[in-house]
Amino acid sequence: PMRKCFRRERAMANKRSADPVIPTESVEQQCVFHWAAWARGQWPEIDLLYHVPNGGYRNPSEAARFRAEGVKAGVPDLCLPVSRAGYHGLYIELKRKRGGKVSAEQNIWLDRLAQQGYRTAVCRGADEAIREINAYLRETSCPKEAEADPCDAHD
Asked: Angle formed by the axes of helices 126-138 and 25-39, to 10°?
């Protein structure tokens, strides 16, 4: 199912140069959601996966309006609000396979979310994000790195 996601990007790149195509973050994210639609048979809860539309360019007045509405810099791109293995949910910051840096604000958000009991990950490309989501959804035991056993609260 992933090949369809990259056709348009490859066609555009072929017109520009002979360099290998590195899909944009947007294309990578679209591929994750294309896969998620396909994976619903195995993981019905995948329907809860959503994108947080914080990134991208905004003109100054639109940016000011969004800030007033509560948009915050650095919030991870993807959220799966499904509890597993003592975590409240999964947040993923998605980057291109090559290029794309995690900003200071994004690192702060990832750290704070982890402190609140969420699993967090930075994934480079759709394939990495899909592996992370699959691994997360397969988990049934408590996280090994937790200071206190979060599973005890659920007994």
From this structure: 40
